[in-house]
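Late entry, written up from scratch paper. The run itself happened at the end of the previous shift, but nothing got recorded in the book at the time, so transcribing now.
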Amino acid sequence: PDPPRHAGPLAPLILALLEKDPAKRPDATAAARTLTDGTGSDRTTDAAPIAGETPARADRPTTGRRPSRRTVLLAGLGAAAATAIPVALALRSDSDGAGGSPSQSPSGASGHPAAASSTPSSAPEPPRPVALFDGDGSTPLSVAFAPSGTMLASAGTDGLVRVWDTATRTAVKTFAHRPVNLWNKPLDQVVAWNSRFTAALSVAFGPDGSQLAVVNGDGTVSLWNIADGGETVLPYLEPTEWNGATGSVAFGPRGGLLATTYDAPTVRLWDPSSRTNLATLATGDTNWVAQVTFSPDGRTLALTSGNGNPGNTVADGVLQLWDTESRTRTATLTNVNSAPYSVAFSRDGKTLANLRSDGKVTVWDVASRTATGTLAGPASGATCIAFGPGRPLGGGFDTGKVTVWDSGSGKTEVVLSTDTSSTVTCLAFSPDGRTIAATAGRLVIWQFTG
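Output as recorded:
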């Protein structure tokens, strides 16, 4: 064929891919190596790269410009086409997300995230943050999207849970838990000792979007009916003297299980419909559980412990997997100290990410239970993580920034700013991946178009 015009340095590769003789065409590995040669990576080399990915060239110096990426999308017996799109579209997924619908890259191919543009002029500036809530005396601590993507819930230090309409960006519901004070002293004295006793620590939507679960600072869990505002309070999670520092709650995707933890080395499984405690899972570790999360199929529960306690070493804690049917521990992947919002499954359940107390993120292959790589930010350590649809993995930082990586290659897709210097405490992706929400002294969202 005639040499392609306007292809620049890609011309030799495109010509090679268009060879009539299949034997003369480069295979996928060779093509990917050609395209990625010279790009930077945030992935470190203390673990093997994910299968099928070309290892990043760690020996090349980085530049002030964000590295570009290209992806070869292969189909059939080797016919290929190269595509480049703005970074704002790189967060669009080819995979199905819970509660969302599958999307495709502009080429119509699936299985890989879209690629960022190779030229600075074609990559638009990251979207600006839109503040839904500036705090007004309360610090948002947790945020979650409804499965439909039409609602967003936030929980904060004032004890209120606010439900937002994502289309109008307005608060449409507010739920207030009345603290249960069993201490033999006035509430103001309890709050003076434990400032988060009256806070709403963690929030999660039920799988059908009709219910919210909230871990309260007094050690209880509230189940809120979003339609009528009715509250059901589950009993105290642990009969101990709590610090009220952290709590985590997660619904199983099938709706029959609720996992909760609060200042203890155990996780409780509940039947949310009958409000009964089904089982208590003991980690065998003395560190408090920091977070719980279910795999997309609901068969596995992942937990982390350690709470990021600065008095602990990076190995003081555990990352474990549990079978939700037999309620038995199936693996302790590693001993690691983890903070809240420190473990997340990819939407297909094949990948697990874990945030360590040193601010680095380990990526795991769930099937083989092996670490496949480590992600790190440009300077400060990550403080929370969340998966989007497909391979995007977001990490919040104590600088008020959010980095989104391709969890497969380790490349940085985009860096977002909350326009504050406050620590990002929680991240959430909308089901379709087009909106990211974060808490960092206030509640902000970024919306991606295209």
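Residues 130-447 form a domain with the Methylamine Dehydrogenase; Chain H fold (CATH 2.130.10.10).
(Scratch paper discarded after transcription.)
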